[in-house]
Write a structure and sequence with these properties.
The chain is α/β, with parallel strands linked by helices. Helix content is 42%, strand content 11%. The protein is built from 10 helices and 6 strands, in the order βαβαβαβααββααααα. Strands 3-2-1-4-6-5 form a 6-stranded mixed β-sheet, with helices on both faces. It starts with 21 loop residues before the first strand and ends with a helix. The relative contact order is 0.13. Bound molecules: guanosine-5'-diphosphate and zinc ion. Zinc ion binds next to α9. The site of guanosine-5'-diphosphate (GDP) has 19 residues, from α4.
Length: 259
């Protein structure tokens, strides 16, 4: 992928997908699940063409694991979901399968979901400092020593960088289309071709929501992510145009000199 050279350094994004086989989107079962964040990560993973896997951590702290899994299933479409507990060591063997053939996996997810604990569990020793929840509640931030590339004792590599923990969407919308197939299949099916999906009669999107195909929150998140992507695309288009202009200025200046 060609990097977009950015003079102000503002949008110089991390190379996310280089040689990554899977992205583990991690979310903890003992906290309020942030479905909208999972959708964001899915969009990003699918855009970079890396296979996402949704990992639900801390099953030992949750009394309704199956309910939570069902909830995630409604937004996961074709993405696999795995629930585990690094402390009780359940689901770990299943997880290890993803590393077979020396695969590289990137971990993403908010601080506190159990990434470090899982890495230690997979390594069979402490390679990462595990944050004390009480401690990072006080400080609002967790300060751990950080290895960014972890080689597992068997097959597999893990990439875990703080930068990858909070990724922003900045590229095209293919990932969006794949993540929100259930919504996009209704686009173009409204009665009016210029339907804004608000109060128009015969709106296919509104009807799908009424029929329970997807919920309003999911639809709103789809619109939000779409705005974000459009914003980035417009911005890079403007920048590309400016760069083009500068280039032509130089060329014409050189031509003038020669004359
Ligand atoms: P990270 O910020 O994503 O790296 O999360 P940590 O690995 O530092 O874990 C945050 C807290 O959750 C620590 O107190 C861990 O002991 C705890 N934790 C992690 N995994 C589990 C688990 O499977 N079960 C339970 N009960 N606690 C866990
Ligand atoms: Zn409509």
């Amino acid at each position: 992928k060609e990097a977009f050279n950015d003079e102000d350094g503002e949008t110089n994004e991390q190379i996310l997908a280089a040689n990554i086989d899977y992205i583990f989107i991690m979310s903890s079962l003992n906290m309020e699940m942030n479905i909208r964040r999972i959708e964001r990560y899915l969009t990003l993973a699918l855009e970079t063409k890396v296979t996402p896997v949704i990992i639900l951590t801390k099953t030992d702290l949750c009394e309704s694991v199956n309910e939570k899994i069902s909830e995630v299933k409604t937004i996961a479409l074709n993405t696999q979901i795995l629930a585990l507990s690094a402390i009780k060591k359940s689901g770990i063997e299943e997880l290890k399968k993803y590393f077979e053939g020396n695969k590289t996996v990137a971990f993403v997810g908010s601080s506190g979901v159990g990434k470090s604990t899982l890495i230690n569990c997979l390594c069979g020793e402490t390679v990462m400092d595990v944050s004390d929840i009480a401690q990072y509640k006080d400080r609002g931030r967790h300060t751990t020593s950080h290895r960014e590339l972890i080689m597992l004792p068997g097959d597999g590599l893990i990439i875990d960088t703080p930068g990858m923990r909070q990724v922003r969407l900045w590229e095209g919308s293919m990932g969006l289309s794949e993540t929100f197939q259930d919504i996009e299949k209704y686009i173009g099916m409204c009665k009016f071709t210029d339907c804004k999906h608000e109060t128009e009669p015969g709106c296919a999107i509104k009807k799908a929501i009424e029929d329970g195909e997807f919920d309003e929150d999911r639809y709103q998140n789809y619109l939000k992510l779409q705005r974000e992507i459009n914003h980035f695309e417009n911005r890079s288009t403007v920048k590309a145009q400016l760069a083009e202009k500068r280039k032509w200025k130089k060329v014409s200046a050189n031509l003038k000199k020669k004359k």
